[in-house]
Amino acid sequence: MVPPVQVSPLIKTARWSALIVGIIYGKFRYDNLKPIAEEERRIEEEEKKVREEKERIAKQLAEAIVEINLEVSCPK
Amino acid sequence: MAQAVQKLVAKVPTLVGAAVNYSKPRLATFWYYARVELVPPTPAEIPKAISGFQDLLKGFQSGRLGQTTVRDALRNGLVATEVLMWFYIGEIIGKRGLIGYDV
Q1: Using CB atoms, which residue from A8, A19, A37 is nearest to B52?
Q2: B45: in domain
Q3: How far apart (Å, rounded) are the C-alpha atoms in residues B89 and B9?
Q4: B67 and B35 inside one domain
Q5: Residue B47 lies in a domain
Q6: How far apart are CA B100 and CA B103, in angstroms?
Q7: How far, in whole angstroms, is CA B97 from its chain's centroid?
Q8: Nearest-neighbour CA in chain B from A39: distance (Å)
């Protein structure tokens, strides 16, 4: 087998310091993004509730109009 | 259905044994190389690394780096890319997810 290469110390320090910097960066970015995502989810929930309320009202209105039309067109 | 599951469960020890037999020599070669090439630098090597970095800077300032051959430049570029990729592996470890942030 080919004997293992003696890696230069510069490359070794660069690699492992890049690894550690990456771990720290990932952790910080995750901690940064998590509350932002929760905030967005909360806002989405509230907007969804408001939208569904509006849709419900619009649907009820449409049904009432249909009924009135029916009564007007063919009264019993 | 139950019989097929039973036969599969009976085969699992042989499968595991076969996997271990297959991977042992390969793990041995990997360990043989990794123990020399992938270890973190000992504290004695860090000053050497710093001096190596300063050599690099001096070479850049003196213009010696303009004399590198294309082959050497490509080789050094590959090494630099590999060093940068370790940063992304560290980021994967830090964010505890393979793809994307799991928020």
Answers
A1: A8
A2: no
A3: 36
A4: no
A5: no
A6: 9
A7: 18
A8: 11
State the residue for tokens 């230069």: A8
| Structural domains counted in chain B | 2
User: Residue B75: which of A17, A73, A11 has the closest Cα?
Assistant: A11
Q: How far apart are CA B95 and CA B102, in angstroms?
A: 8
Q: Which two tokens stand for residue B90?
A: 């560290």
Residue B51 falls inside a structural domain: no
Over residues A1-48, the pLDDT tens digits come to 788 888 888 999 999 999 999 999 999 999 999 999 999 999 999 999
**Nearest-angstrom CA–CA distance, B2 and A12:** 54
> Does B73 reside within a domain?
yes
Q: How would you class A33 by CB atoms within 10 Å of its CB: exposed for 0-12, middle for 13-18, buried for 19 or more? A: middle
Rounded to two decimals, the ipTM of the complex is 0.76
**B84 Cβ contact list (under 8 Å, min separation 6):** A18
- B42: closest CA of chain A, how far (Å): 9
Residue B6 structural domain: 1-40
Q: Tell if the CB–CB gap between A10 and B52 is shorter than 8 Å.
A: yes
